[in-house]
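Summary of Year 1 activities. Much of the first year was spent building the evaluation harness for sequence design. The harness presents a backbone, in tokenized form, and records the residue chosen at every position. We chose the following record to illustrate the format because it has been used consistently in internal testing since the harness was completed.
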């Protein structure tokens, strides 16, 4: 197996950073107490938990009591959707609005709710991969009780107008959730300023460990329990807290939030170079808006090839990129995100996603630009 030298799949996951590991270590070693225990070893863990919660809340612009630690983005999204739907139903509302290209952690729970009698409007994302506020306004009815629209898309990195949608929801008394798993650390996120009622985050996308994340809920009293069996986290998300993971998440969020402009200042020219150079390849098509996209994301379709085959060729050269989202790779289904933009199944299957982190170097981007055209040529020659 070849060694990965150049890692360009940071939307799938990121490497744990040294500062995060340092923040976690005390709680993996000597500080192993259960945060619910009354003796000092346990109390130390409880103090660390509260400190991490306060830090995450300050970064997001909310109260500590409104933060719930979870096992990651998938759990946060599931919890948000099922809880908000139950709360909407209690008010007699059965209509939900979302976008056509949310992560499956949103779409699958919504499918369950549709079977239970909810009606769901899937907003179009148009050719550029951006939800239009006018489409959203037209979709809202008196029966709308819940809206969930992601802050940035995981495959094409397009940034959505969440503050505007949140503002309309606030005026109309509708609960607004955003999946900020890909956006956080790339664009400023402040739940107060952006009118967000519920928000999902995942640690492993921002250099913390896998298996930790958070759910913010403005009206935390209204949150329905999701995991039952203990009094932890107000009984709404039971289970012994993962102190090391949570301490790491808080540190990862701190480091990411203070570095947004520094990271974008570094990545934007690299993204522009990638787009300019890869556009020169015949049959290349950039997926998603040219401007309204994260500085870290480039997504191209290269006519006539299989994205998966290109990924395997690049892997042999020690370069890691992806096609579609990590969660759907391995399945032959074309990405629902790309088909939502109007791509044909073949065009969607010919896509490659390149996602950078603050650790990505210009030399790595230059190397990809150097080898990619030749690898595409070889694949096209094989097809004939
Ligand atoms: N939401 C989005 C937008 C994502 O990109 C992902 C992961 O790819 C998730 C949710 C799921 O997060 P996790 O892997 O922490 O469960």
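For this record, the design step produced the sequence shown next.
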């Amino acid at each position: 197996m070849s060694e990965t030298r150049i890692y360009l799949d940071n939307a799938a996951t990121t490497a744990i950073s040294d500062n995060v590991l340092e923040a976690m270590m005390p709680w993996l070693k000597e500080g192993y107490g259960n945060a619910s225990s009354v003796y000092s070893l346990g109390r130390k863990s409880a103090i660390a938990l509260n400190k991490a919660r306060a830090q995450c809340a300050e970064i997001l612009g909310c109260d500590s009591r409104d933060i719930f630690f979870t096992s990651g983005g998938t759990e946060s999204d599931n919890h948000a959707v099922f809880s908000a739907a139950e709360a909407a139903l209690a008010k007699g509302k059965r209509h939900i609005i979302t976008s056509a290209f949310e992560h499956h952690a949103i779409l699958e729970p919504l499918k369950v709710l549709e079977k239970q009698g909810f009606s769901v409007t899937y907003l179009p994302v148009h050719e550029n991969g951006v939800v239009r506020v006018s489409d959203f306004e037209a979709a809202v009815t008196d029966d709308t009780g819940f809206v969930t629209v992601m802050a940035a898309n995981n495959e094409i990195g397009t940034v959505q107008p969440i503050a505007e949608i949140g503002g309309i929801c606030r005026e109309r008394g509708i609960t607004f959730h955003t999946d900020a798993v890909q956006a956080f650390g790339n664009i400023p996120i402040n739940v107060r300023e952006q009118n967000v009622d519920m928000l999902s985050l995942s640690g492993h996308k921002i250099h913390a460990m896998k298996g930790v994340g958070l759910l913010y809920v403005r009206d935390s009293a209204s949150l329905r329990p999701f995991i039952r069996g203990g009094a932890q986290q107000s009984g709404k998300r039971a289970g012994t807290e993962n102190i090391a993971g949570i301490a790491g998440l808080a540190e990862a969020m701190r480091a990411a939030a203070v570095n947004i402009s520094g990271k974008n200042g570094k990545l934007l020219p690299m993204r522009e170079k990638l787009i300019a150079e890869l556009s020169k390849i015949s049959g290349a098509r950039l997926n998603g808006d040219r401007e309204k996209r994260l500085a870290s994301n480039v997504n191209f379709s290269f006519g006539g090839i299989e994205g998966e085959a290109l990924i395997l060729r690049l892997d042999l050269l020690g370069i890691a990129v992806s096609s579609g989202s990590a969660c759907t790779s391995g399945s032959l289904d074309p990405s629902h995100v790309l088909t939502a933009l109007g791509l044909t199944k073949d065009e969607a299957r010919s896509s490659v996603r390149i996602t950078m982190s603050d650790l990505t170097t210009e030399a790595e981007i230059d190397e990809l630009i150097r080898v990619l055209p030749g690898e595409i040529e070889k694949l096209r020659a094989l097809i004939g």
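The chain has a mean pLDDT of 96. Quantitative recovery figures across the full test set are reported in Table 2.
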